[in-house]
Design a protein that fits this description.
The protein is α/β, with parallel strands linked by helices and 567 residues long. The chain has 16 helices and seven strands. It folds into three domains: 38-178 and 338-363, abc type-2 transporter like fold (3-Layer(aba) Sandwich), CATH 3.40.1710; 181-336; 367-559, no CATH class. Strand 2 (52-55) and strand 3 (61-64) form a beta hairpin. Helix 12 (444-469) packs across helix 13 (472-487). It is rod-shaped and about 210 Å long.
Length: 567
């Protein structure tokens, strides 16, 4: 045994020791993102909601866009890598596996939310569409997240919103009741006012009549002024006569001086009275004319006031009638509005506390979980099966290396024998898939053909490993198996893994084997299945060509005596 051979054996033994650690460590590392893994799963949001406007009693318009509020809450919260897009692009992304679910907010979402405060509330339906042909678990997780979202939005946010609406309406009802009471009091006051105005206008009418009579009587004061003028004129004449008679009486010696003195005093007083008579007559005439004018003006005003009285009474009567109608209308409105009692408001809010529903649809649904698991474990079983074949079958013997046959012929012969075994494995697994797991037999040509392709590709790859590295190639296969178990999607989304595993996943053959068989069983996109088949074919062909190169190298090394091969 050469030094190089001993070194390779030591490396192989060390690798065998590390295999359990590789399996465990790769799984731990793949799931290292922990709770944040869900945030990396791509999910599309389609917001078809239509903006609505509400008009307040004062005419103020307020825009309502509940769909935008929902989208904002979703994209701002933890859980999924949300992408806002349109319906067409979202459908294409779901079909291609670029997103794992599509959440759609309907066009009537805001309308439905606003209807909760009307007499005919309706539920708003949010839909989630998934595709089992890409990831079974992601669809289930999306449904759970969607249901949680509707519960949160519908039972918390909306319940508070509706509770506020009904509380406001209850307060409005109380205000309307108070207003109705005030209108009733206004009606009663207007009725009393109408009655009082009737009595008042009746009194004004009587006053107007009395003032008319007084004005007619005031015209008789003209005779008083004439009498005063005649009186003052008589006094003046009497004063003049006494003034002339007094000197003669005083000159008569037979007249008692006391009498003549008294007569002189009377004559002087009459002269004074005669002097003020004209002033008295003028003032009396002016005063009486003023009295007559004032009485005439009062009579005219009272007549006008009396003439407007019926209209005033009629207006007061109309006010009372209108106030009564207002009170009746306000009371009817107050009776129609929900009560402001907190218990009643909470009860009514509870009725509409679940206004948002969730509709879930699944493209290419797989109802049987065992079928989903089988789409992962059939390719895995074929990998292990190919590995097992080369545990019992030597890829090359001393006789083969020493023969004159072409290397390509040797490779094809060995691969042919190994392929018979792995093809039988594929047939058995496909039979299990259809017979025991319930996959429709109509898919047999596709499942069998694709499984045979997987088996041949994996057989060629393991032949390459054992040809190039001997039995150490099988250890490499175990390491690759551990890596692929953690980095291959299918049942779970690859985005949930750590970044290095996401990067290596497209380079692994098991990724395409799982993707293709899952697309066939679930009825996914034909493009996905065909693409996976092409990649597996290239992988198998490349492995075969490299195996030929490895065979040539081994034959040269054998010819030079550098590689001992046991026959």
């Amino acid at each position: 045994m050469t030094t190089t051979t001993r070194a390779w054996r030591r490396v192989g033994l060390a690798a065998v020791v590390l295999i359990p650690l590789a399996f465990t460590g790769l799984f731990v590392g793949a799931l290292g993102q922990g709770e944040k893994s869900l945030d990396s799963i791509p999910v599309a949001i389609v917001n078809d909601d239509t903006l609505q406007n509400t008009t307040a009693p004062d005419g103020t318009e307020t825009p309502v866009f509940a769909g935008r509020l929902l989208v904002t809450e979703l994209t701002g919260a933890d859980g999924f890598d949300w992408t806002i897009t349109n319906a067409e692009d979202a459908a294409a992304a779901l079909d291609a596996g670029e997103v794992y679910a599509v959440l759609t907010v309907p066009s009537n979402f805001s309308t439905s939310i606003l209807s909760l405060s009307s007499a005919t509330p309706q539920q708003a339906d949010i839909s989630i569409r998934t595709d089992d042909s890409h990831s079974y678990l992601t669809g289930s997780v999306a449904q759970v997240v969607g249901q949680t979202m509707t519960d949160t939005f519908g039972k918390t946010i909306t319940a508070q919103y509706i509770g506020g609406i009904y509380a406001s309406l209850g307060d409005l009802g109380t205000s309307l009741g108070t207003a109705a009471e005030g209108a009733t009091q206004l009606s009663m006051g207007a009725t009393s006012l109408s009655s009082g105005l009737g009595e008042y206008t009746a009194g004004v009418g009587s006053l107007a009549g009395g003032l008319d009579d007084l004005r007619d009587g005031a015209y008789g004061l003209i005779d008083l002024t004439d009498g005063i003028a005649s009186y003052t004129g008589g006094v003046s004449q009497l004063s003049g006569a006494l003034s002339q008679l007094t000197p003669a009486i005083e000159a008569n010696p037979t007249v008692d001086p006391a009498i003549s003195g008294g007569l002189r005093a009377i004559a002087d007083k009459l002269a004074g009275a005669a002097a003020g008579g004209s002033t008295l007559s003028s003032q009396a005439t002016s005063g009486i004319e003023g009295v007559q004018y004032g009485i005439s003006q009062s009579a005219d005003g009272a007549a006008q006031l009396s003439a407007g009285g019926p209209a005033l009474v009629s207006g007061a009567t109309g006010l009372a009638t209108g106030a009564t109608d207002l009170a009746t209308g306000l009371q009817s409105g107050a009776d129609a509005v929900p009560a402001a009692d907190p218990g009643t408001a909470a009860s009514m809010a509870e009725i509409v506390a679940d206004p948002v529903t969730l509709s879930v649809s699944t493209a290419n649904p797989v109802s049987n979980l065992s079928q989903v698991v089988a789409t992962f474990f059939i390719p895995l079983g074929l990998w292990v099966g190919a590995l097992a074949v080369f545990l019992v079958m030597r890829p090359v013997t001393t006789r083969a290396l020493a023969s004159t046959a072409r290397s390509g012929r040797l490779v094809s012969a060995t691969l042919g024998r190994a392929a018979i075994v792995t093809a039988a494995q594929a047939v058995l697994l496909v039979g299990l898939l259809h017979g025991a797991l319930g996959v429709g037999w109509s898919l047999l040509p596709a499942t069998l053909g694709f499984s045979l392709l997987i088996a041949l590709a994996f057989t060629a790859f393991h032949y390459l490993l054992t040809t190039a590295f001997g039995r150490g190639g099988l250890v490499i296969s175990l390491f690759l198996l551990a890596l692929q178990l953690t980095s291959t999607g299918g049942i779970y989304p690859i985005q949930a893994l750590a970044a290095p595993y996401q990067a290596v996943s497209p380079l692994l053959p098991l990724t395409y084997a799982v993707s293709g068989i899952q697309g066939i069983v679930a009825g996914g996109s034909a493009v996905t299945v065909v693409s996976a088949a092409v990649i597996l074919f290239i992988f198998g062909a490349a492995s075969t060509l490299l195996a030929v190169v490895a065979m040539r190298r081994s034959r040269r090394a054998r010819a030079l005596g550098l590689t001992p091969v046991t026959a």
